[in-house]
Write a structure and sequence with these properties.
The protein has about 150 residues and is mostly helical. The protein contains eight helices and no strands. The chain folds into two domains: about 80 residues, lambda repressor-like DNA-binding domains (434 Repressor (Amino-terminal Domain)); about 50 residues.
């Protein structure tokens, strides 16, 4: 009878040893949003991560094992980094082509001002600011990333 009294009233969901239990739930909530921001279907994300579409769907609904979540998060992170690299390279080519065009400095100052405001806002604003920073020339990116 004493052993029964020591059993917890509720059994927590499975979390890998040493892992932060809140991270699995956070990953489940963000997988769909991150996938959609990248313009991917569930099938395409599944193909890239090595899963089928129903597995991605289950993960987005919070019904996936930690290994699946980890692989999806890893794949999304790699794709986001790749997109950032492409955005930055395109921005650098654009600003080089613009050269010393009239109003270039004023335009950069206005964009940097918007980024400053966004960086002081909500998490969604900060995400938008980061996308905007990726569109600026390298010197502006360094200045804005080093602020704070």
């Amino acid at each position: 009878m004493d052993q029964i009294a020591n059993i917890p009233a509720s059994i927590p969901e499975y979390v890998e040893p040493g892992a932060d239990p809140s991270m699995a739930k956070a990953d489940q909530r963000t997988i769909a949003a991150r996938r959609l921001r990248l313009g991917l279907t569930q099938k395409r994300l599944g193909d890239l991560a090595g899963f089928d579409q129903p597995t991605v769907s289950r993960a987005e609904q919070g019904r996936a094992i930690p290994e699946v979540l980890a692989r999806l998060v890893e794949t999304l992170t790699a794709l986001e980094r790749q997109r950032e690299d492409v955005d930055r390279a395109e921005a650098d080519r654009f600003w080089q082509a613009v050269g010393d065009a009239p109003h270039r400095t004023r335009l950069l100052e206005r964009i940097e001002g918007v980024v400053d405001v966004l960086l002081d806002g909500t998490l969604a604003d900060v995400e938008l600011a980061q996308r905007l920073v990726d569109c600026l020339p390298e010197p502006s990116r360094r200045r804005l990333v080093g602020r704070g």
